[in-house]
Design brief:
Layout: H1 4-7, E1 52-53, E2 56-57, E3 66-67, E4 70-71, H2 72-79, E5 83-87, H3 88-103, E6 109-114, H4 121-129, E7 133-136, H5 139-147, E8 155-157, H6 164-172, E9 176-179, H7 182-195, E10 199-206, E11 220-221, H8 226-235, E12 240-246, H9 257-276, E13 283-285, H10 310-324, E14 332-335, H11 339-342, E15 346-357, E16 363-367, E17 383-386, E18 395-400, E19 409-416, E20 424-428, H12 434-437, E21 447-451, E22 457-461, H13 466-470
Parallel strand pairs: 5-21, 6-7, 6-14, 7-8, 8-9, 9-10, 10-11, 10-12, 12-13, 13-14, 16-18
Antiparallel strand pairs: 1-2, 3-4, 5-15, 15-16, 15-20, 17-20, 18-19, 21-22
Helix pairs in contact: 3-10, 6-7, 9-10
The structure holds pyridoxal-5'-phosphate.
Pyridoxal-5'-phosphate binds next to helix 11.
Length: 474
């Protein structure tokens, strides 16, 4: 693009001017006697010369007019904006697909819903009604699972911080305790003394699956020998019995290979516990970590078809377990899948509060939902769709949230039609980790609704009010 000075030059180059403002021919410019036009720096705008250029093709998202048959306009008029919307159909479809992929390949499989991924009661109860146990990582989550009616013996208790009181209650109620460190093992022995009986536990391991960075902060490291040493310490006096081995190798694991390695290493450790330490091991828990159909910022491919299916993960894990337990019934298998079950079921409707042109020449939209509600926008390019059909040009805009904070950017660059104040977008998939990790900061939290398979809209969490905000203050 030309700058102002260039536009005055017949040859397209900068006009040569004398110091009195006349040009080399002694003529004054059209801008007025003696006035130089102020310099305006050139702005480069990327031109799309057809569907494909050397940066690859681009496509514009189809508008999202409704969610499971309920129109966006109706949802906003009833429940306001922003609004989280969950599809019960998708939740059920996903967990059934997971159960089918593993149960059809493996004799004894049990899913445990990862509470931290989304612990709204209504969401948890959809998974529980499909047979999932609860997997919790804190005293609060343990109480939430009990409040949802889950008996202790159907709760897997992970996490690095369990108070003595909650640990004792969980042990008494038969929960599966996954020990994270030696101090916890000491607590568990004390609980065994107090209860006057041995306590059954599982050990959490961390191990090298070839993924970088390696997750090593939770549980006991396998390759260094710490895990075996911890098992010896735990079982030396008969107060604790090891019945399971757990490993959660990471999150958004978009390859199946690391699960093969983990299943193999965990199986070998399991057999070592059984054969060398005579422990009554019964199960292997390979944690969560399956990728959802979301787009990591670091990934070039916008389409998520390359993300492994549940069948692909199941094939990798079950084959490896069978290889490790030839001629015998393999151990019970638990998974604590979180994001891959709930991410695609969650949508956030947000409204345009305003637009502006930045000094850089880029257009920006200000939304009523930002990083306060979209924790996962830090590493995903969340898909942002208009909610009606538009004709005309689409342009790259930057999407800001409502916070008076520089960090509040939902998308650095996002192709959208010419949206106006009061119009909506749908941000998707946002079902995993956003409701639980949303920040209580600057704005009050919005309502959450669940659309039932019959198309009924149920309010599963109401919008916060000023009374809520001050209720705990004095
Ligand atoms: C111990 C444990 N299990 C399960 C999960 C769920 O993981 P994801 O949501 O990646 O499936 C997590 C999450 O980090 C976890 O820490």
């Amino acid at each position: 693009m030309k700058n102002n000075n260039e536009q005055n030059s017949p040859a397209g180059g900068p006009s040569a001017r004398n110091t009195d403002g006349t040009d080399v021919h002694g003529l004054r410019g059209t801008a007025g006697a003696g006035a130089r036009k102020p310099y305006a720096r050139p702005v480069i705008r990327k031109q799309y010369m057809g569907a494909a250029n050397k940066f690859g093709g681009y496509s514009v998202p189809e508008p999202v007019l409704s969610i499971d048959g309920v129109s966006i306009a109706e949802l906003v008029s009833k429940f306001g904006s922003p609004l989280f919307v969950y599809s019960e159909n998708t939740l059920r479809r996903k967990v059934r697909e997971l159960n089918q992929a593993f149960s059809s390949r493996y004799p004894s499989f049990q899913a445990a819903w990862s509470y931290k991924t989304n612990y709204l009661d209504a969401i948890c109860n959809v998974f529980h009604s499909e047979g999932s146990w609860a997997e919790v990582v804190s005293g609060f989550e343990y109480l939430k699972a009990r409040h949802n009616g889950i008996p202790g013996d159907k709760i897997i208790f992970n996490g690095p911080y369990k108070t003595y009181e909650i640990l004792k209650r969980a042990v008494s109620e038969g929960a599966r305790i996954h020990a994270d460190h030696l101090d916890e093992i000491r607590d568990l022995k004390k609980i065994s003394d107090e209860l006057g009986r041995p306590v059954e536990i599982a050990l959490r391991l961390n191990l090298d699956t070839g993924m970088v960075p390696q997750w090593s902060r939770f549980g006991f490291n396998l390759e260094s020998g710490h895990a075996l040493e911890a098992a010896r310490i735990a079982t030396s006096d008969g107060k604790l019995k090891i019945i399971g081995v757990h490993s959660h190798i990471g999150t958004f694991m978009y390859e199946t290979g690391p699960y093969k390695k983990a299943a193999d290493k965990v199986s070998k450790f399991y057999k070592q516990l059984r054969e060398e330490l005579s422990q009554p091991v019964r199960y292997i828990d390979l944690g969560g970590g399956f990728a959802s159909k979301n787009k990591l910022k670091a990934h070039y491919k916008a389409d998520c078809s390359w993300i492994p299916s549940f069948d692909a993960y199941a094939e990798a894990i079950c084959d490896t377990l069978y290889e490790n337990f030839p001629g015998e019934e393999p151990p019970q298998l638990f998974l604590e899948t979180g994001r891959a079950l709930v991410d695609e079921a969650g949508f956030l409707i947000s409204s345009v509060a305003g637009s502006k042109m930045l000094a850089s020449g880029q257009r920006a939209l200000i939304l009523d939902a930002g990083v306060n509600l979209l924790y996962t926008s830090t590493w995903y390019d969340l898909k942002v769709s208009p909610t009606q059909h538009y004709s005309g040009a689409w342009e790259d805009v930057i999407l800001y949230g409502p916070l008076c904070m520089n960090i509040d950017v939902v998308r650095e660059k996002c192709l959208l039609p010419n949206l106006h104040r009061g119009e909506q977008v749908v941000i998707h998939p946002v079902g995993a980790y956003n409701v639980t990790q949303s920040m209580q900061f600057i704005e009050m939290k919005p309502a959450v609704v669940l659309v039932s398979p019959k198309g009924e809209v149920k309010l599963i969490k109401r919008r916060e009010t000023m009374e809520d905000m001050v209720a705990m203050e004095s």
